[in-house]
């Protein structure tokens, strides 16, 4: 049982800490109705419902964002190993960037970046 004692003590301290934080939050919470408060950071009342539909023009922008997000996801590990891999790693990254550039050029040609 001596192996499990530190784990049980840690679980007990964690549970007591969580319970104390919830109790402190309930004790210090403001007493008001949730619908009586205004928007948090905007300052203006919302024009639309929060679950309203988005215009279809946002979806190509989202796809472009994901393309650049994937680029950064692949570039970080590449930067970490480029010194060890040498020229083949540089060639592969430029090939990847070329494919990404072709995709962005296609999206631009198709009007994904136009708002009108």
Automatic annotation (TrEMBL):
<dbReference type="InterPro" id="IPR000440">
    <property type="entry name" value="NADH_UbQ/plastoQ_OxRdtase_su3"/>
</dbReference>
<dbReference type="InterPro" id="IPR038430">
    <property type="entry name" value="NDAH_ubi_oxred_su3_sf"/>
</dbReference>
<keyword id="KW-0472">Membrane</keyword>
<protein>
    <recommendedName>
        <fullName>NADH-quinone oxidoreductase subunit</fullName>
        <ecNumber>7.1.1.-</ecNumber>
    </recommendedName>
</protein>
<dbReference type="GO" id="GO:0030964">
    <property type="term" value="C:NADH dehydrogenase complex"/>
</dbReference>
<keyword id="KW-0812">Transmembrane</keyword>
<dbReference type="GO" id="GO:0008137">
    <property type="term" value="F:NADH dehydrogenase (ubiquinone) activity"/>
</dbReference>
<feature type="transmembrane region" description="Helical">
    <location>
        <begin position="6"/>
        <end position="30"/>
    </location>
</feature>
<feature type="transmembrane region" description="Helical">
    <location>
        <begin position="85"/>
        <end position="108"/>
    </location>
</feature>
<dbReference type="Pfam" id="PF00507">
    <property type="entry name" value="Oxidored_q4"/>
</dbReference>
<dbReference type="GO" id="GO:0048038">
    <property type="term" value="F:quinone binding"/>
</dbReference>
<comment type="function">
    <text>NDH-1 shuttles electrons from NADH, via FMN and iron-sulfur (Fe-S) centers, to quinones in the respiratory chain.</text>
</comment>
<feature type="transmembrane region" description="Helical">
    <location>
        <begin position="58"/>
        <end position="79"/>
    </location>
</feature>
<keyword id="KW-0520">NAD</keyword>
<keyword id="KW-0813">Transport</keyword>
<dbReference type="GO" id="GO:0005886">
    <property type="term" value="C:plasma membrane"/>
</dbReference>
<keyword id="KW-0874">Quinone</keyword>
<keyword id="KW-1133">Transmembrane helix</keyword>
<comment type="similarity">
    <text>Belongs to the complex I subunit 3 family.</text>
</comment>
